[in-house]
Amino acid sequence: MKKQTMGIHHISAIVGNPQENVDFYGKVLGLRLVKQTVNFDDPGTYHLYFGNGLGSPGTIITFFPWAGAYPGKVGDGQVGITAYAIPIGALTFWEQRLQRLNIETKRVTRFNETSLQFDDPHGLHLELVERAAGAANDWIYEDITPSVAIKGFAGATLYSAAPVATKDVLENLLGLTFIAEEDSLMRFRSTGDIGNIIDLKQTSMGQARMGVGTVHHIAWRAIDDQDQVEWQELAQDAGQYVTEIKDRNYFKAVYFREPGQILFEIATDSPGFAHDESLATMGEKLMLPAQYEHLRAELTQKLIPIQLPKK
């Protein structure tokens, strides 16, 4: 039996001003800022992580805020739409909440599901879709209670420069199952209960440009270190150029750019976000990896201060 990923571990995107990012994902969507740290490859830039109250794999969206940077263009070789799962019956709540906050929304139906589509302040395409599967999110913000709160990812829509080749990677490397086709989309499912539905666009969305408002990469789940090594070997055997294992403190990661030019990562579920600060307090202060701790004063001066949402 071929290996199968449980689905999405996290999605990482490029945005603009970090306070605008915190205000939208924390105050508008009611997600928890589970970690504020820096980009390990560029420590002068924040790396902000938002998820459910526990910071569980499959709920985490991460951001590199580049204040004042050039806007990107969503297109081939990127995640085009990031989809969040909400409880059954919660769509109207979110439609009313977003409209009350002057955020334009649109209802779209595909594969017999109705989703609510909208953009974040920096141009990322998002949608909410009702799903029965997945644990409730007990992180409460204002009137966003567990009965309506975002559970985690529903999935993502991939824009590929080579859809046939991307389909092969999804099915024969990552172990996703093809379940349906509608118009220009093919739908695949992984084994997890969240972050498990991937739609692949079969027609071109035009040339992409990396920048503010675009997704940098999508990460798939590996259970632990051994599982990740096996995924790394499988990807290499499939002809992918895979990086060495990189320690990201909260997970370990390997990367490869699949033939459709989307940057894929495979990330471990462990150790998670509460190993360097408590579950109760995680996300409240800037956490630096050991190699940058001696630069704390310098980095603190460089990074734009942010204020967290008050519960």
UniProtKB/TrEMBL annotation:
It comes from the Bacteria. Residues 7-131, 152-269 form the VOC domain. Pfam families: Glyoxalase. This is Glyoxalase family protein.
